[in-house]
Amino acid sequence: MPLAAAIIAALCSPLAMAQEAPAQQEQKDRAVTLDAVTVTAQKREENLQKVPISMQVLGTQQLQELQVRDAEDYLRLMPSVSLETAGPGFGQVYMRGVASGGDGNHSGSLPSVGIYLDEQPITTIQGALDLHVFDLARVETLSGPQGTLYGASSQSGTIRLITNKPDPSGFATGGGIELNSVSHGGLGYVTEAFVNVPLSERSALRVVGWNKKDAGYIDNVFGSRTYPYWDADTGHGTDDNREVAEDDYNWVETTGARAALRFDLDDSWTITPQFMAQKQIVNGAFATDPQVGDYALTHFYKEYSEDKWWQGALTVTGKVGNFDLTYAFSHLKRDDFIDQDYNDYGFWYDAVAGYGAYFCSQFDPDAFMCAPGGSTNPSQFIHGVDGYSKTSHELRLASPQDQQFRFVAGVFWQDQKHDIEQRYMINDLDPQQWVTGWPDTIWLTQQDRRDRDSAVFGEVSYDITDKLTLTAGGRYFWVDNSLKGFFGYGDWGWSSSTGEAGCISQDDYEGAPCLSFDKRVKENDFLGKINLNYQIDDNKMVYAIWSQGYRPGGINRRGTLPPYLSDYLDNFEFGWKTTWLDNRLSFNGAVFEERWKDFQFSIIGPNGLTEIRNANQARIRGLELDVNWAVNYNFRLGAGLSLYDAELTKDYCGWTDANGKPVTSCPNGTLNPDGDAVLGPQAPAGTRLPVTSKGKGFLTGRYTWDVGAAEWYVQGVVAHEGKRSTDLRVAPQFPGEVTAYAVKGDLPAWTTMDVSAGFRWENYTVDFYIKNVTDERVVQGRFTQCPESICGASGVVAEYPNGQVYETIGLPRLMGIRFGWNF
Q1: 3-class state of residue 93 by DSSP
Q2: Which residue from 262, 263, 287, 508 has the fewest beta carbons nearer than 10 Å?
Q3: What pLDDT is stored for residue 105 in this prediction?
Q4: What is the 3-state secondary structure (H, E, C) of 519-575?
């Protein structure tokens, strides 16, 4: 409706403008043009329309106009990007259909999309930082492999968040206050502000701060459940959640700040130190159990997380002769504290396998079950403490941009550490069943993961003619990844392969009883890129590109499994960047084919342990389009569209050979490494890759008009994403097996509409907005708390005839009013 109204208003604008003087009308017609957008995607400042890469950019003004507050907001407007999330700070980002369905586990694969804050990488294993979006210069999305300039974890693309820098030229301040209300929930608010203070002619300080509360909209509904084997004497036991039941319990509070200094030593050298910190408290879960109700579930233990991180960065830029030298350093420290309900694990394993008879307040080791009267509630909860740190250095040199031959070359080094402590706990547990030294802990994960990579890289460009340019690039890299520590049960006879029964060293390991595994994998290789672009005229360019990206390999924490190796992506692309109608219309696009080699695939194996294998080969073909149109002085349209055909090109059998290469031939009767005969491939060639839809797009329209000294506007945004599959595996491996895909099914398509209206008067703005006007139920993922063969079992429990599968749900309808200022 708002888009239609804006279009009608635009088409009728000649009538409205007829009241204006002809001279005013002529002046406005001449002013109709699209703003030039400067980006740094290729480690240089360039006009977006001159960069031969498929990319989208949201600038400061667009971020404000579209009410973008967090990653979920801007990713929804990026057609090449897909998102799976378990809640704030735990989102998995994918681009161009390069997704196998990873679960974001701490011992899982590194991300396939690199995320940068200015010059510094901020990608972490378990999810992208949920940075509050305020006072950003722009968000750049670079589609396709960016391996030569950005390296590891920029396999399928890169997202760059560019902050506004301190400015010595003058004082400035701005900010906003917002109040909002979410459907099915309560009230929230946002307060944010910045100040830019010149300290001298050559130095300035910029300070930014924010505080917001997102209201909850999911209810933890009162309920009870009866365990078939909880009590050996009575045959069952019942538990309820009366102590934690709560309406709208998934609220979020976020507080953060950023401070940056700028020192211009002279006309050539600049030093910019920056520090940013954020604390995010999340209560509840961002999931719903359809069998309980819409926006509802029944959980039995406290659910709470505290995500605290800070980043210190230093950027030095200067001239060495005519060459530009840049040094970028950063250190990121992130700490997560988590309390999570894990009741389903205990309940379903009790229902399917009678686990409740073995976890006890008084354990009888001779009978290997609970002593008479010694039963306890076998349900579990998780207490986790995760510490991340990431340190990176990059030094690069760039030749003058106006030369016929030019280059960018540099060195890069990065060290990521992840200290993992997760306690799976049962209240009132017999000390015999504890992991030694850890009360009420039935399972302990105490591990250290370290991912190191270094590289030398460069790109050279040569203007063959004044219109034809050839660019070639390469990156030689080294990776060294390790995982060691303790995981598993105490030594009470439950397991002989994990925990204390499987120790390889009896020495204490960071409080854990011993070291149960210590593994390491090293690799090195080369990535390449060739780009040929032709400038038809000042407003039109076409390009062809071959580029490569990679994701490092790593260690499986199940000791019997081999390490998984790096996977690679080859991209073959043809694209165009064009402007038309005297720079009133831009039309950019790309068609491509990507070949994904030996890609990493995560599954949840026995005991809920993530297992990663180099799975198979895949092919992604796609089309990406981006349009911006200044229809007239008052009305602007924007649109983006992506279409993808992503599928396996060989069968997925589910295991690798002795060299770590995926086995792709396994007809019915083939023996797997365990000696068991399989029914055939778990995913035959032609199976669609999960997570990414065949199509995603958006349409925006904004109409402005003047009333006295104020500028008014009305705006609409429509976004759509098609149906997506949840899992790669579509066929059973053994008779009677139920596949994860059969349990979780497809994610339905969704379409949302946002509307807003408001005005600007001098230095003040007032905005009214409604996001997700139709209250669309956006399903972002489906999951179970234990292997689908257990938690997805059908016919075991009457209350859950089809198993217990959760859905992560996007934001319902959100209405808000915002007052802002800018001086």
Answers
A1: strand
A2: 508
A3: 64
A4: EEEEEEEEEEEEEEEEEEECCEEEEEEEEEEEECCECCCCCCCCCECCEEEEEEEEE
Cα gap 552→15, rounded to integer Å: 61
Instruction: Quickly tell me which residue has 């980002």 as its tokens.
Output: 93
Alpha-carbon distance 628 to 49, whole Å?
A: 12
User: Is 670 a member of any domain?
Assistant: no
Of the candidates 523, 571, 565, the residue with the CA atom closest to the CA atom of residue 543: 571
> Are 426 and 440 contacting, i.e. CB atoms less than 8 angstroms apart?
yes
The number of beta carbons lying within 10 Å of the beta carbon of residue 464 is 11
pLDDT of 327-364, one tens digit each?
999 999 999 999 999 999 999 999 998 888 899 999 99
88 with 130: CB under 8 angstroms?
Answer: yes
When pLDDT is cut at 50, 70 and 90, the band that residue 431 belongs to is very high
Q: How many structural domains is the chain composed of? A: 1
Show the domain range for 796: 32-612+624-646+688-822
Coil, strand or helix: which one is 799?
coil
User: Tens of pLDDT along 343-352?
Assistant: 999 999 999 9
Which of these, 81, 74, 90, 180, lies nearest to 132 by C-alpha position? 74
Residue 671 lies in a domain: no
The arithmetic mean of pLDDT across residues 116-145, rounded, is 86
Q: Which residues contact 583 (CB under 8 A, 6 or more apart)?
A: 33, 34, 539
Which one, of 569, 644, 639, lies nearest residue 56 by Cα? 639
Query: Taking the C-alpha atoms of 728, 734, 736 and 740 in order, what is their torsion angle to the nearest 10 degrees?
Result: -20
Q: Beta partners for 287?
A: 808
Quick check: 89 and 127 in contact, CB under 8 A?
yes
Q: How many CB atoms lie within 10 A of CB 389?
A: 16
Residue whose structure tokens are 């993808």: 644
Task: Kindly give the pairing relationship between strand 157-163 and strand 113-117.
Answer: parallel
- pLDDT on residue 17: 37
C-alpha distances (whole Å) from 352 to each of 294, 345, 713, 783 are 27, 11, 59, 19
CA 231 to chain centre: 43
Do 165 and 124 meet the contact criterion of CB atoms below 8 Å apart? no
Compute the distance between CA of residue 813 and CA of residue 772 in angstroms, rounded to an integer.
5
Query: In the chain, pLDDT over 70 holds for what percent of residues?
Result: 94
68 pLDDT more than 80: yes
Q: What is the pLDDT of residue 735?
A: 86
What digits encode the pLDDT tens for the residues 170-184?
999 999 999 999 999
Whether residue 744 is predicted with pLDDT greater than 60 in this model: the reply is yes
Confidence of residue 185 (pLDDT cuts 50, 70, 90): very high
Q: CA 434, 436, 437, 438 torsion: positive or negative?
A: negative
Give the 3-state DSSP-derived string for 724-787, with helices as H, strands as E and coil as C. Answer: EECCCCCCCCCCCCCCHHHHHCEECCEEEEEEEEEEEECCEEEEEEEECCCCCCCEEEEECCCC
Supply the CATH number for residue 573's domain. 2.40.170.20
pLDDT score at 612: 85
- E strand residue ranges, 605-657: 610-630, 635-648
First-to-last alpha carbon distance for the chain, in angstroms, is: 34
Listed range (6-10, 485-489, 494-498, 615-619) with the worst mean pLDDT:
6-10
Helix H or strand E segment including 2: helix 2-11
Separation of alpha carbons 584 and 653, rounded Å: 52
What per-residue confidence (pLDDT) applies to 104? Answer: 54
According to the model, what pLDDT value does residue 503 have?
87
Q: What residue ranges in 371-427 does DSSP mark as E strands?
A: 380-398, 405-425
Residue type at 303 in one-letter notation = E
CA Rg value for the chain: 28
With contact defined as beta carbons under 8 Å apart, do 443 and 606 qualify? no
Residue 251 lies in a domain: yes
Instruction: Please report which residue ranges of 696-753 form alpha helices under DSSP H.
Output: 740-744
The whole-angstrom separation of Cα 712 and Cα 704 is 5
Residues in the chain: 823
Mean pLDDT along residues 526-549: 96
Q: Would you say residue 628 lies in a domain?
A: yes
